[in-house]
Amino acid sequence: MKTFVGIDVSKRSLDVHDINSEQDRQFENTKQGIQQCTKWIRSLKPDLVAMEATGGYEYELASALLSAKLPAAVVNAKRIRDFARAVGQLAKTDKIDARLIAQFAASLQPQPQKQMDQAAQKLKALVSRRTQLVDMRTAEKNRVEHARDAAIKKSIAAMVKTLDREIAKVDKQLSNHIDQDPRLRHKAKVMESMKGIGMGTATSLVAKLPELGQFNRRRISGLVGVCPINRDSGRFRGKRMIGGGRSDVRKLLYMPTLSAIRHNPPIRTFYQRLLKAGKAKMVAVVACMRKVLITLNAMIANDQMWVCKNP
To answer: Per-residue pLDDT averaged across 130-139, rounded?
Structure first.
C-alpha cells in the first residue's frame, strides 16, 4: 500500500497527516521544527508528500524534504480548494486541511518537485524580488494620473526614482549571478538568441521554468497553462480556453510574444496566418505564446541557438 502525506503549512506551524495510519502531528515552522517534521516523515517512507504553496512559508520545509531525498510536491492552493469543493469538504481547520491535502495527493498524485541547487535558489529569489519591485513601480506610476496635489506628485516621482535604482541593482546582481554559473549563463544565452526574448525574460525563465528542455512540447505547454482546454458538451461547442499551470510564466511570456510577433518572421507569419483563418487576435497571440514556449523548449533540449528558418 502506498503512503501519502499531506502538510498544511502556516506561518507558525506545520500540521501533518499520514493517510495510511491516520496519524496527525503538529510541528513548529522553525528550523528545529522542520528537522523534526522531516525526520518523522522519513520514518513513514512516503511515496509522496504534498503541501500547498503558501506564499513562501512552505519553502524551507520543501527544501528540507527534497534534501532528505523525499518525494515532495508543492501544489497550487486553488487546486486544493477545487478538490475540497469536489469532495464536499466545507469545514476548514489546519488538521482538516492536512487530511484533505493527503487525500488530494493519494487521488491525483501530483509530480514531485526537483531539488534546486543553491545557484538556482538564489536566481529564483532575485527574479522574485525584481518582479516585486517592478510591480511597485507600476503601481506608483499608475497613481500619477490621479494625483492632483504637487507635493503628492513629487512624492510619487521620488518613489519611482528610488525603485528604478533598486531594480537596476537587482538587474546587476542577476547579471553577475548568471555570469558566475556557466550552466545558467549558457541556458540564458540560448534563449536570448531568439528574436523577441531579452535578457530579463531569459533570466526569469531560467528561474521560474527550470523544466525547459526536460519535457516534451505537450507537457511543457500544460505546465505553463497555454494548452487550449476543450469545453464541449453534446452538440454544444464552447470556446477553447487556457488556464491552470504557472500564471506568472504566462504573464512573463506575454510581452516577449508581442515583440516576437513584430520582429520574429516565423512567429509573425504564424500570427498573420491565424488572423486570416478568422481567429480572434487574443487567440492568435496565445497560440504564438505557445509556439514561442515550445520553440524555446526545443532549443534548450537540443542545445541549439535560434535559427530563423523559412516560416
So the answer is: 90
DSSP 8-state code for residue 306: -
| Euclidean distance between CA atoms 8 and 15, whole angstroms | 5
- Residue of 106 and 89 predicted with greater confidence: 106
- Mean pLDDT to the nearest integer, 23-38: 94
For residues 4-16, give the mean pLDDT: 93
> Roughly what angle, to the nearest 10 degrees, separates helices 182-192 and 118-144?
50
Angle between helices 281-302 and 265-276 in degrees, nearest 10: 150
Q: Global pTM? A: 0.62
Is the distance from CB of 2 to CB of 50 less than 8 angstroms? no
Tell me the domain boundaries of the chain.
4-108, 118-180, 203-302
Quote the CA–CA distance of 298 and 311 in Å, as a whole number. 17
Residues 6+ apart with CB under 8 A from 285: 254, 257, 258, 261, 271
* Domain 4-108 grouped into CATH 3.30.10.20: no
Closest by Cα among 206, 173, 215, 195 to 265: 195
Under 8 Å between Cβ of 3 and 46: yes
State how far Cα 240 lies from the chain centre. Answer: 22
134: which 3 cell numbers? 517592478
